[in-house]
Amino acid sequence: MITVLKNDTTVEQRESLCKWFEDMGLSTYVSEGEYHTIIGLIGDTSKIDIGLLESLSIIESVKRISEPFKKANRKFHVEPSVIDVSGAKIGGGNLMIIAGPCSVETEEQILTIAQSVKNSGATVLRGGAFKPRTSPYDFQGLHAEGIDLLLKAKQQTGLPIISEIMNINDLDLFEGVDIVQVGARNMQNFDLLKELGHTGKVVLLKRGLANTLKELLMSAEYIMAGGNENIILCERGIRTFETYTRNTLDLSAIPALHELTHLPVVVDPSHATGVSRFVEAMALAGVAAGADGIMIEVHNDPEHALCDGAQSVTPDQFSRIASKIKKVHEEVTV
Amino acid sequence: MITVLKNDTTVEQRESLCKWFEDMGLSTYVSEGEYHTIIGLIGDTSKIDIGLLESLSIIESVKRISEPFKKANRKFHVEPSVIDVSGAKIGGGNLMIIAGPCSVETEEQILTIAQSVKNSGATVLRGGAFKPRTSPYDFQGLHAEGIDLLLKAKQQTGLPIISEIMNINDLDLFEGVDIVQVGARNMQNFDLLKELGHTGKVVLLKRGLANTLKELLMSAEYIMAGGNENIILCERGIRTFETYTRNTLDLSAIPALHELTHLPVVVDPSHATGVSRFVEAMALAGVAAGADGIMIEVHNDPEHALCDGAQSVTPDQFSRIASKIKKVHEEVTV
Amino acid sequence: MITVLKNDTTVEQRESLCKWFEDMGLSTYVSEGEYHTIIGLIGDTSKIDIGLLESLSIIESVKRISEPFKKANRKFHVEPSVIDVSGAKIGGGNLMIIAGPCSVETEEQILTIAQSVKNSGATVLRGGAFKPRTSPYDFQGLHAEGIDLLLKAKQQTGLPIISEIMNINDLDLFEGVDIVQVGARNMQNFDLLKELGHTGKVVLLKRGLANTLKELLMSAEYIMAGGNENIILCERGIRTFETYTRNTLDLSAIPALHELTHLPVVVDPSHATGVSRFVEAMALAGVAAGADGIMIEVHNDPEHALCDGAQSVTPDQFSRIASKIKKVHEEVTV
Amino acid sequence: MITVLKNDTTVEQRESLCKWFEDMGLSTYVSEGEYHTIIGLIGDTSKIDIGLLESLSIIESVKRISEPFKKANRKFHVEPSVIDVSGAKIGGGNLMIIAGPCSVETEEQILTIAQSVKNSGATVLRGGAFKPRTSPYDFQGLHAEGIDLLLKAKQQTGLPIISEIMNINDLDLFEGVDIVQVGARNMQNFDLLKELGHTGKVVLLKRGLANTLKELLMSAEYIMAGGNENIILCERGIRTFETYTRNTLDLSAIPALHELTHLPVVVDPSHATGVSRFVEAMALAGVAAGADGIMIEVHNDPEHALCDGAQSVTPDQFSRIASKIKKVHEEVTV
Predict the structure, then answer these.
(1) Which residue does chain D place closest to A43, by CA atoms?
(2) H or E element, residue C328
């Protein structure tokens, strides 16, 4: 960490600051320039509160050299993590294909889609039971009943399942759910993250609409700090000024995250674009960019889906997309 | 609500769609253009799921004419709401000045600041006991002990108090807290909003970093739908590409919200800019733009604050700012 | 076009407005709702100034149903345009690979790179002679001398060349340049666009950092309105809050533009990310998303490039990337 | 400037880099940490090309300590600049009020408005003759005729005038124009900036929709580097995800620019919000935030303005706003 002092800092102030750093177990070195004096800090600076440091009146700016996340950091865990979800692997060359409806609606619906996406190559079944909706007047999901129907589909097809949690008080309901999803709006619901850190659950953590990659990794760190390192990251679009698509899918996040962390990265083209016509193009782009997994909304009757139908593809379209995904994955991982 | 049909829609499809609308209690009217046919909908369309409608293959686009929020809507509640918080009023010309430290740290700290800001004209005392921090390794607040210290300050000064809630399971601790704050990161923590809707607590709801004004009002609607209409909105900066300030304070939100809703609006220049040097300018700008309240972080020793010191002003600075705030408020409300 | 009137509009005002529309050759239809009256407009509304219309006191909102761009619009030109640049084709399944240095520096540099990228499969050579730099103190390009060196490279290799124009007064220098590039910062330099509309030059038009897809198409329309329809669009990243990459490459723009327009679309992963390590991933993602061309910065000595070296790849890296690009292109266009 | 080296840099590489810096006239100092080695640079680093430096394979990151703008920098010019435009002063406590129509339309229109805004306290008259419009089919301004009409209004009222230039080839037409405006879309039209640097014209430079404050200052530096230091900066809104207002007026830019530069700052609430109802609130907020000037669109018949009528206020509204502006200015500058 580098600290730039203001011009008018006295020698006494500077020495007092250095002493404070040294009392925290850090080594310091001082370099005096014509306009600025700089204090470099060596040691474990991850516990220094940048806000506090910047608040000191003698300090002009502070720059971290090391990232503040540790367990998620690739520098200290060079090999990519491989996570095994009841046999469906992700990371280190293993591609996970997650498919299913936005919301679980009926037994027939979820069983039909589950069987169909399994046949087309999906390795995990998705389905929402608790739905975060912008309006309190929109359909909010089937809750416990939705989880039960997912479990039936899991039993019948053998596919592991993923579903979103919105409230830590519902955790018991997720006992048979293989991957617990934390949605974009809850990426910084720190109390939820902490609690998940004390479970052994695989967590799929979605990037918030206005969150940087480093904030995403700090949220992963919240879970990992509690002892749970089974985390899959998910890029699902960020909010920008462009309105033609619902959000802007940030695919550069894939190589960037692979550089910063060992955790696997999934891309969700359905929620990112909000437009089923663009799902194929963006799913293939995601795989070509190096994603470890793709999550696609599939509905057997998108015109009557109770939620987000506009972004779902049909089982037939999914079958074609899944097949292309595998071919592109082969080309880029050779 | 207006629905634009695709060119190749058949008359049968169109009639079937109109029937579906009519079954929902809506009146329809159809206008045929050269390139497009349009169906207008009359009646209560707030329960129509736009996602579902857009998913129909015959539909090109959908445009709401009426806003989807009802209880927060100024069209149905023309007079501005005035909220009385133990004698400190906000709205309808009443200015609320909220001041205090980012975090409650010690009894001496909170009592000293409380007395000082009261003397300078603050009408509500703020202080964080539960702190949402990006890093799991940063100070997270004193929790129950922090609330207790705030209550002491309330007792000693008579100032009503505001503090942030992060987890609905902590609600009992907030019994003596006059205003419960929902932070920007929890603006779409819908489960938390729903629960607060079943209490009688005054809620200060902060706009999320990437949330539109209409989404903010939909989140207010979540609380109001449960029966609790005591809501204060808060603009605290949105996330943009500019990095010189921490966030970009969107002051146009004030006249815009006053047009859309009857709920009062507070501005938080401290969190928005993250820079104590800019707090005075932005506080005055907020009042000049018509804000019903201003929330300012004050710390008697900003250089040693455990959290967000960089954005705090000293009690002396606050005294000067509060005095200017009142003068500008008088000029603009004449 | 749909015009929503305010509640309190009188019948006389409405009829006067309808007459005004009809005088402009448009047909109107009126639909009265409980809260709103709507006037629909049928005919050529592309010349209506939305700003003017919205300014009328009786109007609540205006919504275009048809896009305001005509010559670029795919609705009126269903087949994708194929542009032939001295034998290098783009569009309709033809992939263009543009490669070369950010700036032309020396004869040896440009000749070496030109030969190398040709051998690796590039179909067009790029090289900057006029460089838009944020700082007036940075290298601004070799100007006329740079164009001359590019022409030498064209002669020696047979590759068509592309270079950026910043000032219409320089147009004569571009006589032998096959594609004139308009940079992101000049996307709305309307005087420059108009002048290019009166030439027969192929123009590669880059999307501005804060411009929507529709604005990009309106800028293309500026050129096309003058009679020049040889336009290639280029996605090169938009500005968002994320700072890990220089800009955020918006790959959803590719399927979106293919839906809106018949013009071909190129992706520039080098400028978008600003990081050479990410160029391969994003080039492949671009092709997988359906791009008609890829533009990559290549430098034989990136460590000493006078400009933007951080984002250049070496000729060896380019050779490997170009080969993968072709394979992915084959997989996705089957 | 601080340069952080990668872990695996050899001593030879480091010494070679230091020698290269020293050959450029800079002093260096080296600090070795456990994970990183840092080279600090002392001297005039404004000519170092950061892109070039970051491209070197041994470098992890580079951080400027000093800003790359010099003539605009407040560190080297502590007093705020006062610019005198034919008697209308701005800066250092002098408030400039600019008012007039978006476009000059007719002689009667501009003369009427000019007299009216003068009576209400405007100190400069605005009026567009060259209009940058998103669509080629929209009204583009009266060009030379518009300038002539402005000059008549100047003669009749004695008010200095401001008008926008879009093409350097039109410069001769601006001989009698007191302030030449560079619009947001041309903020990085570097050729235009350079040419203006060689004139003695006062330039009002608008911030681009996606440009940072530092980029705005670098564009000012382009003009100042040529010798022309008569520059007024203008905040007119940036592009964000919020669509309720046309752009997001970034008022924190005012105290931030006052800290970074000695140049005066004007706020344009009309273009920023695009909504005449919000102009008063944002004009007052701008003054309260410390703006040195306010620019407001005024039209005697906003319902029939040929351009941007939606954001214009009437002369009566302007009169009321101007009077409040002065009162708030007095309160905040005491």
Answers:
(1) D34
(2) helix C315-333
What is the DSSP secondary-structure string of B4-19?
A: EEPTT--HHHHHHHHH
Task: Out of A241, A278, A289, name the one closest to residue C256 (CB).
Answer: A278
Sheet with D59-63, edge to edge strand ranges: D27-32, D37-42, D2-5, D59-63
* Residue range C289-319, pLDDT digits in tens: 999 999 999 998 766 665 566 788 999 999 9
**What is the structure's pLDDT at A99?**
98
Q: Which of A36, A42, A63 sits opposite D33 (nearest CB)?
A: A42
Q: Indicate whether B136 pLDDT > 90.
A: no
Does B38 have pLDDT greater than 70?
Answer: yes
Please report the sign of the dihedral spanned by the C-alpha atoms of residue D245, residue D248, residue D251, residue D252. Answer: positive
The ipTM value here is 0.89
User: For residue range A127-175, what is the model confidence (pLDDT) as tens digits?
Assistant: 999 988 888 887 788 999 999 999 999 999 999 999 999 999 999 999 9
- Of A234-248, B216-230, C42-56, which gets the smallest average pLDDT? C42-56
Instruction: Give me Rg for the CA atoms of chain C.
Output: 23
Domain D2-63 maps to which CATH number in 3.40.50.1000, 3.30.1360.30, 3.30.70.1140, 3.40.50.720? 3.30.70.1140
- C-alpha gyration radius of chain B: 23
Strands (E), B124-236: 124-126, 161-165, 179-182, 202-206, 231-235
Facing residue for C190 by CB, picked from D132, D221, D305: D132
A167 touches chain D (CB under 8 A): no
**Distance from C-alpha of C42 to C-alpha of D247, rounded to nearest angstrom:** 30
Which of C47, C53, C137 to mutate to probe the D interface, most D CBs <10 Å? C137
Mean pLDDT of chain C: 90
pLDDT at B34: 62
Is the pLDDT confidence value at C15 over 90? Answer: no
pLDDT at B258: 97
**Class of the C74-333 domain?**
alpha beta
* DSSP helix/strand/coil, B215: helix
CA distance B174 to B128: 12
pTM for this prediction? 0.90
- Nearest chain B residue to D212 by CA: give it: B242
Interface probe for D, chosen from B242, B243, B246, B278 (most Cβ of D below 10 Å), is B242
- Scanning chain A, the segments in alpha helix (DSSP H) are 11-23, 50-55, 107-120, 144-157, 190-197, 213-225, 253-260, 269-273, 279-288, 315-333
D27-46 pLDDT, tens digit per residue, is: 887 777 666 677 877 777 76
pLDDT mean across residues, chain B: 90
Neighbours of chain D (3+ CB pairs under 8 A): A, B, C
Phi, psi at residue C158, to the nearest 5°? 80, 0
Per-residue pLDDT tens for C181-215?
Answer: 999 999 999 999 999 999 999 999 999 999 999 99
- What is the Cβ-side half-sphere exposure of residue A218, based on CA atoms within 13 angstroms? 19
Rounded to the nearest angstrom, the minimum Cα separation between D240 and chain C is 9
**Beta bridge pairs of residue C161:** C125
Which residues from B are below 8 Å from D256, CB to CB? Answer: 244-245, 278
Judged by CB atoms within 8 Å, which residues 21-40 of C form the interface with B? Answer: 29, 31, 33-36, 38, 40
Within 10 angstroms of residue A19's Cβ, the number of other Cβ atoms is 10
Tell me the pLDDT tens digit for each residue of C277-293: 999 999 999 999 999 99
Extract the tokens encoding D262: 């000695």
Sheet order of strands, C2-5 included: C27-32, C37-42, C2-5, C59-63
**Domain ranges across chain B:** 2-63, 74-333
Q: Which residues of D touch B255 (CB under 8 A)?
A: 277-278, 281-282
